[in-house]
UniProtKB/TrEMBL annotation:
Keywords: DNA-binding, Transcription, Transcription regulation. Coiled coil: none annotated. It comes from Streptomyces griseochromogenes. Residues 29-48 bind DNA. The keyword DNA-binding applies. This is AcrR family transcriptional regulator. GO terms for molecular function: DNA binding. Residues 6-66 form the HTH tetR-type domain.
């Protein structure tokens, strides 16, 4: 069965999350991603113009996945009950292939290089996730910041083992 363009792109993003989680932006070869996705490297470059664009798309995908899981987990709950449900969903998310490591690699990629586009992407993703959590839970901004700070700590702990 042939995959549609969208399905193939999603498969490539899944492969990219896994590979970038291992090697980061600068330590991951595009041929490894193409191999994992089961496509040729030239086709990979038809889907994404360069490695940075693919890295950014994989990073955005990881945050969208978080927002979707958090919204599903919260359902009609509000306040602490919604945050508790999101925290349980977060545990499942952190066990999924590569999301925690990819987030750390994205933050470290923007620090030394000062890549303004990637910096903007990282800020936007965290901001959108914060907004989603605030809107779905009705929690105060400082409580949502604490939830996200805990998430970042868990990401570091999972990454370091």
């Amino acid at each position: 069965m042939r995959l549609t363009f969208h399905e193939r792109r999603e498969a490539v993003l899944g492969a990219a999350v896994t590979e970038f989680a291992r090697g980061g932006l600068h330590g991951t070869a595009m041929d490894r991603i193409a191999e994992r996705a089961g496509i040729s490297q030239p086709y990979l470059f038809r889907l994404f113009p360069n490695k940075r664009a693919l890295f950014e798309a994989a990073f955005v995908r990881s945050f969208r996945r978080s927002a979707e899981l958090y919204a599903q987990a919260a359902g009609d709950l509000r306040g602490e009950a919604a945050l508790d449900a999101m925290a349980r969903a977060r545990e499942r998310l952190l066990d999924e292939g590569g999301f925690p490591q990819l987030r750390l690699h994205a933050v470290t990629a923007v620090l030394p290089a000062g890549d303004p586009g990637l910096t903007t992407c990282v800020r936007r993703c965290w901001s959108e996730l914060r907004t989603t959590i605030e809107e779905r839970t009705g929690a105060a901004p400082e409580r949502v910041r604490a939830f996200l700070a805990e998430e970042l700590l868990l990401v570091v702990e999972r990454t370091l083992g």
